[in-house]
Every structure is written in C-alpha cells, then in structure tokens.
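A.,

Following up on our hallway conversation. Structure tokens first:
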C-alpha cells in the first residue's frame, strides 16, 4: 500500500467539515432550553435527559457554559483530526481475488466470483458501487458466500453513461437486469438465487415478479418499501424541496453525487462528527483503521443517478411512497409483492439508520410466506462487520440451501415471450 496524495473525500468535504461545528454550536445554543427541561428529546434519550434537568438547573450558568464550550472545542478538534487522518491515510483498496467481468452492456457489468455451487446473483444499490460486497482482504460478503459452496455473481452498475441517460428505475429492471439474468442463465445453465441489497432489493423484487420461472429464490437485504414508516416527515420534506431538487436535475441532467451524499448525511446529521472522532482515536496502523478507510472510500466512490431515476426515487418513493401504495410500475405493471411465488427471505437489520426497520418489515409483510431475519446490526455493518458471517452469511446460506432447484426456461422460450410482449 503506497502512500499517495490526500483524498478529496469525504464527499462533500465542506459539509463534513461543517458538521461538527453545527452539532456543537447547537449544543451551546440549546443549553438554556436544556436547563429548563424544554428541549424536544428523542424517545431513546428522553428519560436520561429528564434526570439531568435538576442538576443543570442548579448549576452556575457561567460555569456550565464554559464546561460545555470546552467539551465542544475538544470534540471539534477531534473531528477535524479524524477527517485529516482519513484524507492522508495510506490504505488503498487491493484484493487478490477480484471477480472476473464476464458480461457488459452500457456501463453495467456482471462479475463472476466463480465456484461450482448454485449461482447467486447479487444486485447492489444504483447509488453506491458494487464492491461493498467485496470490500477488502478482510471484509467480503461474496467471499464468505463462496466459501459456503455457492457461486456468487455481482452486478457492477458503474456510473450511468449514454446508454443509460434516459433510464428510470423501470428501465434498469426491464432493460438491464433482464439482460443480466439472461447472461447468468446462459453462463451457468441454472436458475439462480437472487439477492438484492438496499435499493437493489427494490429492483430485484420487480425483476423476480417478471421472471419467477427463471429464479430459485429471492433474498431482500435491508430493502426499503414503506418510505414513510419511521420517517413520517419525509413526504413533507420532499414536497417542499421538489422544486429546488427539480432545478438541480434540470441543470445537471442527473443527480450529482455530492447532492446524494448530502441527502444521506441529513438522515443522521451527527454521524460524520461521531465517526471521525472515533477514527481519530484509533491507532492508524491498525486493522480497525484500515477497515474504516476501506468503508469510507467505498462511501465516497458512489455514482450519480440519472434524472429519471432520481425523480423515481426521491419524488416517487420517498415523496409519494409509491412502493408501499403498490403504484410503482415496471413495464406498465404495478410492482405488487403479494404476487410473488418464490421462496423469500427479508433481512431487516435491527439498528438500521438508513432504512428504518419498519420500512423493510412492511415489504416482508406483503410477500406470501416471506421469512424474516433481524440481525442486531446496522445497514452497512451488516455487510462488512466482524458479525457478517454469523449474522448474515449463515442465515442467508441456510435459506438458499433450503430453496429447491428449478429448471429455467430455455433461451428460445424467453425470447419468444419477450417478442410476444413487445408486439
């Protein structure tokens, strides 16, 4: 691992640099309200905060302000050191077993990890790159899956190019994922298992409903469905921001990565401050530090969304909740999970801050006979933590093993059905 120049990340850098000052200035500004017991605490912190009110009220305002200001300054400095340490860290991703690219169409590629077991097609989100599934020498969901006797194949979306410029979510399913599935069938000769992670789960659900006869099972990993569950204010936010977001889409012709990263940062405004302070305290030559940098590099190597896909996701899914209302359409048909007739598993991370568990559970409740597994992990930690093997890979492998093999249709039959649908 050779040392290179400092990273431009985390993206967007100015917002990350401003996150800690905004957090701790807010603490100082809210101090009088906290002393009076009038701050609107979250449910998880309300009881502890109420116990503090008498002590805060009894303290000298001047001394309390000075003590909080000193703590705020220390934490601001720790966050600054963490960001700078990340930017200058020598780690760069390099893995010995990068899966082979075996098919491509437009900017989309199919990667085959190899193996002689049942094929498992894994579909990540369109926003972040595929390699969260195979992050580093230490962290790899695909490598663990292969060790269980399966043959993982992963979709590598890459940034949208000219071929995808007019794609919305429907085209990513009906045009691109259908072609990916055909490539897997041709390469392996078997009906694959299908796994979708995060937004990839929404796309794989739609694909599974269109191609049930060519699949063996469907697994949905941290897949959002009811976009208002756990976040009822999101519809109001999207409604109020629709005009300004639309202006960004019109100006750029796509949704830039900086905006997307800002949106996800807003879902947990104090995360940047917390994680970079934690990183600053780590030995920088430790495995934990390298794991942190590997994950941050992945987070900052996301891709833009096409204009239509951004409109589908931000306005249709987050704003109007078209998924949970069964009004999201692919190929002119509503994506209705009640029509799924495949063995199915929904993995719902119990501490997910990106996809609230209530949102993912809503999808499992719609699918007939869907199994549910709730690991005590977060959205990303589920995929790259020390507990990934025991809490994710083992239950997923058990589910896949139990699903009976299916003989897929012949390529001729698939082409005939497509031709009939087109006419």
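Then the amino acids I'd put at each of the 423 positions:
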């Amino acid at each position: 691992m050779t040392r290179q120049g400092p990273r431009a990340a985390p993206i967007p850098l100015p917002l990350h640099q401003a996150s800690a000052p905004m957090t701790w200035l807010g603490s100082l500004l809210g101090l009088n309200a906290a002393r009076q017991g009038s701050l609107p605490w979250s449910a998880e912190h309300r009881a502890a905060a109420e116990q503090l009110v008498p002590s805060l009220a009894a303290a000298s305002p001047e001394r309390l302000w000075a003590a909080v200001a000193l703590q705020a300054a220390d934490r601001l400095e720790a966050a600054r050191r963490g960001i700078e340490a990340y930017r200058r860290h020598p780690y760069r991703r390099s893995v010995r077993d990068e899966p082979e690219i075996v098919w491509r169409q437009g900017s989309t590629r199919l990667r085959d990890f190899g193996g002689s077991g049942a094929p498992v097609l894994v579909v990540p989100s369109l926003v972040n790159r595929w390699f969260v599934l195979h992050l580093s020498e230490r962290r790899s969901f695909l490598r663990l899956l292969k060790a269980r006797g399966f043959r993982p194949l992963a979709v590598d979306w890459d940034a949208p190019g000219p071929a995808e410029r007019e794609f919305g979510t429907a085209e990513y399913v009906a045009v691109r994922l259908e072609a990916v599935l055909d490539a897997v069938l041709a390469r392996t000769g078997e009906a694959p298992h299908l796994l979708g992670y995060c937004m990839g789960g929404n796309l794989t659900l739609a694909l599974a409903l269109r191609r049930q006869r060519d699949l063996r099972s469907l697994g949905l990993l941290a897949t959002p469905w009811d976009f208002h569950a756990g976040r009822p204010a999101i519809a109001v936010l999207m409604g109020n921001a629709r005009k300004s977001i639309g202006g960004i889409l019109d100006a750029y012709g796509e949704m830039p990565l900086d905006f997307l990263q800002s949106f996800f940062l807003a879902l947990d405004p104090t995360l940047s401050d917390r994680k970079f302070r934690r990183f600053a305290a780590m030995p920088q030559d430790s495995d934990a530090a390298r794991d942190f940098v590997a994950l941050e590099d992945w987070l900052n190597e996301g891709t833009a969304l096409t204009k239509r896909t951004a409109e589908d996701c931000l306005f249709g899914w987050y704003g109007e909740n078209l998924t949970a209302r069964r009004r999201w359409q692919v190929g002119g048909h509503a994506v209705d999970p009640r029509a799924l007739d495949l063995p199915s598993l929904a993995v719902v991370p119990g501490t997910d801050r990106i996809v609230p568990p209530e949102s993912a559970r809503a999808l499992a409740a719609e699918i007939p006979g869907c199994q549910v597994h709730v690991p005590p992990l977060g959205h990303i930690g589920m995929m790259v933590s020390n507990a990934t093997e025991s809490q994710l890979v083992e239950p997923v492998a058990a589910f896949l093993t139990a699903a009976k093999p299916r003989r897929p249709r012949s390529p001729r039959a698939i082409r005939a059905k497509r031709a009939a649908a087109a006419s």
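The domain at 100-231+304-422 is CATH 3.40.50.1820 (Rossmann fold). Curious whether your intuition agrees with the design.

B.
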